Batch of 3 targets.
Target 1
Amino acid sequence: MEHTRCLIIGSGPAGYTAGIYTGRADLKPVLYEGMQPGGQLTITTEIENFPGYPEGISGTEMMAQLKQQAQRFGTDVRTGYIVKADFSQRPFHLVDDHDNEIEAEAVIIATGASARWLGLDSEKKLYGQGVSACATCDGYFYKGLEVAVVGGGDTACEEANYLSTLCSKVYLIHRRNELRASKSMQHRVLTNPKIEVIWDSTTKEICGNDLDGVTGADLQNLKTGEIRHIDIAGFFVAIGHKPNTDFIKGQIDLDEQGYIKVSNPSSATNIPGVFAAGDVCDPHYRQAIVAAGKGCVAAMDVERFLQENK
């Protein structure tokens, strides 16, 4: 069985940053990239809000650079993912998707969270060309234009309010006749003159093409069956995220949504020697720069833990 001092599960800004720091600490970490190497940023067209890139950079290119930097400092980056983990005792016992067994003295979980989607073919086709799951990331591209947000919870309302500061109009599409968001958040949406709530409706189709991106959406009223078309340039899906924590359920403490609980400001979980970083333990911010910072925190926590538990 293979042995490592530090195993990093997941890539993206959190995982790769953890690899950079643990590599520089001479821990010779092993990093499994997961089912989507580089994380969700690899399907993002352009990133303009990450410090150090004044002209912007594609998500794929940024993740490639972070990966190279981690490898430069000795991180063993591997394709594949962890399918089973036993945290009952140290060293921890883990199994990857090729049935390879590995034991680790410390583990950093950076498996991220996946956006929930509507499941439309047009949604997949136009992702990154007007379809997005992050208003903070992509809202600036639609300054002065009309956009739509799907959802009725706090996240959807927050995204709609944020977009209203940039866009000329925001449609908030909700399948029910009342919002699920907190009363204060509802009030902000319902009193915002730039937001129009479209009640009792679902998205039938997102309209657009490879050249123009999103151009509109066809909505169906669930009570009348009537189809309404809206002209928009951006379509934001805000129906929640699912943290990628299925493989650790029952061992690591999770919140009611499935996010890993950490002892802030550290990255420590309820299991000594197991740490978490990035979107897998962050239901609030979900930003690349925050994930990278938490990857640094987790790496430093691991280094300190291993020094104290030789």
Note: Residues 117-237 form a domain with the FAD/NAD(P)-binding domain fold (CATH 3.50.50.60).
Target 2
Amino acid sequence: MNSVTLSQLRAHSLLPLVLTLCVTLFALGGSELTVILRFDRVALLHEGQLWRLFTGHLVHLGWSHTGLNIAGLALIWALVGQRFDNRQWSAIITILMLGISLGLLIFNPTLAWYVGLSGVLHGMLTAGTIADIRSGDKSAWVLLILIAAKLAWEQTAGALPGSEAAAGGAVIVDAHFYGGVLGLVLGGLFKPKAV
């Protein structure tokens, strides 16, 4: 294992800190800002508000939803954050945001609006797990199987028990699925770092 300097650790932590700061600042903006930034089918298709393809993933239903997603980001970063550099992760996150939003537009025509980072988080975890597997970590197969089982459960039985109460609203499980599928592809396309 390579030794990590303090400056490398700071650089590596920069991306999740920036993402957490954005999510927190948008949450401080309240529901009015959320309405302006959320994924909104009518605003995207009829008003050309394309920023919503990205910003919809950075706003949330409320503070509990925000906190859950920030905690999820921290956990994912601890598990697989070292597998890609910040430039790669930035590209992966951007592609996930765009891909999940397009998936919702195309395959969920009755979905009027969406908020939350959870679809992106599922994609990040899957991409990082694939990178772990590609780097020879056989134990990562267990995590990949658990991710697949969760996504299969959600597609057949709906949101995990208690998740809607914890988030403060409906869980759009298809966003998790689109993120997971994209994560599989991205984890295979981006070259993992040696750790």
Note: Residues 61 and 168 are 6 Å apart (CA to CA).
Target 3
Amino acid sequence: MTTAPTRHLLVVDDQAQVPRLIAALLGEGYRVDGAASAASALAVLEDRLFDVVLTDLAMTDIDGIELIRRARRRDPDTPFVVFTAQASVESAVAAMREGAFDYLRKTASSSELRAAVDRAIQHGSLSREVRRLRSEVERARGTSDVIGQSRIMRDLMSLVERVAPSDASVLILGESGTGKELLARTIHRMSHRRDGPFVAFDCSALAPSLLESELFGHEKGAFTGAGRARRGLFREASGGTLFLDEIGDIAPEVQNKLLRVLQEREIKPVGGDSFVKIDVRVLAATNKDLRSLVARGSFREDLFFRLAVVPIHVPPLRERREDIPLLSAHLLSRRRAPGHDKRWPTRLSSGALAKLASYPWPGNIRELENVLWRAAILSTGDEIVEQDLPALETRGESRALLLAGLPAQGKAPGRKLKEIVEDAVRAVERQAIRDALIQCGGSPTRAARLLCISRASIYNKMKEHGIVG
């Protein structure tokens, strides 16, 4: 005969006899631990998993409703039953709004208590099973755009699966175009914050004075032009995830304030008099070597360690060439040129795949996507063949000339090689900006992000090349 498993309860009440009373009322099959305050209960819940938590509402440090609110942020699947002498409709509604499963008076009989506890335990068990099954389905279906079956990508996703459920800060490192923001979105979707907002921000896009206001918000009249108050991105991301891209570009004065936010979990809006508590997970990314910046004194070492609780390196495409066929199929299937009426190819010939695999992809996945998009537009069949692909040269001058659309031979007589290469580089730059603007619907801001440069830089370059936005 199989013995039923012992159900594990935590009873939170500032009266020491209450846990013993509940243990006596429930009888065998239940193990009851006690916590004399909400603060001690939160500390216990940090270390152990309980089948159900029974809590009073009126306590000296933190009330029961605030306990439920904080505890469910960490683990939304643990059921709470309010067990109090001060029962009222208002308190019952408030507790239910924060996620309490049931509500009992302390005068409840043993059978009523046992029935409520058993229902709560069953609900918690089902909730955890649903979450587990959802996670399995998401992994099987591939819920993110992080595509790859190579060993290096399997190891990467294994690390992400372990890190995502926590609230630890993650620093995502990698070259431009490797998909750092996609990885950040995947971490958010696999976390308990998945139902909260995901807010992404490019830290290189604004000057330090504007960056501070964008992140922390400002009060009306805080500076010239502040005609109304602004919440700021930290509060916009409340309950969710804030992704700070190009974190290596933030100015020292903003670094100081960001460090305090990460330490104290509170912000002070520009022009404000008081601090505001925040509930946000911070993910950051950069293509720079932050350790070198720390060594040169241009990035705070303590901020680096706060951000890089878990560092994750996204490999460049050249280190996982075996993923190119899978990536190519995915990119072709999800993207079709606007207004393109002919049949859109969704596969590549073996010759085309061989050509893609032999190229080192300095622009990584972003460059692969652009090459495939161009090839799909030029393709005349159901599949992309080698002839549809642009010339993918890697040798210095020839590569620059080909990208610029210039012939590799037939240089103007009497011109120095340096002049030829400089002209080619300017042509490459001009064409890259034009292509980016077309791809981004004419938006210089989005084009700047695509090209991994600042907004100021793209406007300067557009002016230099005579490109009208």
Note: The first strand starts at residue 7 and ends at 12.
